[in-house]
Please model this.
Amino acid sequence: MDLARIYAAHRFCLSFEVFPPKTASGEDSLFSHVERLVTWNPAYLTCTYGAGGSTQEKTLGLTARLKREFGLPVASHLTCVGASRNELRSYLHRAAEAGIDNIVALRGDPPSGESVFRTAADGLSYANELVAMIRAEFPRFGIAVGGYPETHQEASSPESDLQNLKRKVDAGADVVITQLFYDNQDFVRFRERCTSIGISVPIVPGILPITNLSQIQRITKLCGAKLPESLVKSLSEKDDEAWQYRVGVEHATRQVADLMALGVPGIHFYVLNKSSAAVDILSCIGS
Model:
């Protein structure tokens, strides 16, 4: 089922994002975690796509396997990085043949060691171009795009970033899934700004529960998200993994409960191939 129909059919949609493990044992571990996650009846699962297409075949195979084994709609990430138009078309053809339902269409970050995005020969420069290609040539796919409550770090201004998002939606995106954030007011303001310029597709908050302070500091530095000072202070009270897990999960639980009270169309969990944090949050909320 494509994303437009998924969100039209449900008042609230839970979804989880995973990434391709590097080893067979890692994949076995992932599927054991997904078995726990699917007991919460997610509407769909998504699988990421490595920088420069580095996990292309693993992404395709893993996404198809998730659908076979769990019987859920699935979405494969796809980026413009390092790919010509024909290479993107080839991936989309293979994704269709594998029964994949949806595509998360992204420009993508520069490959490791590079600081600037470079358009591949005969490639695409922007996510809206990828959305337009998919909508015109592969209409069977539902399409999700990324949104940035705190503004994409490469954007010249919040206004230009929002206009870029509108171009993606106008090109045919069915849903916006946001980058991680830790202050719900950032999401509220972002949603209001989206509405003000005519973005009417579902805007789904992306949540990454904190389980380790140093890990989340690395991640937020890369993506430009902020960590509230009070949250960092609480996480820093003890150099203890169990303590940081507890503080992070409690914060995410409050985030999710408040967002649900605000009537969001769903929650998209970035689970980092684990299940404990998301399961603990959902258990507390009773979702």
Observations:
- The first helix runs from residue 3 to 9.
- The domain at 3-285 is CATH 3.20.20.220 (TIM Barrel).
- Strands lie at 13-18, 44-47, 74-79, 102-106, 142-147, 175-180, 203-207, 266-270.
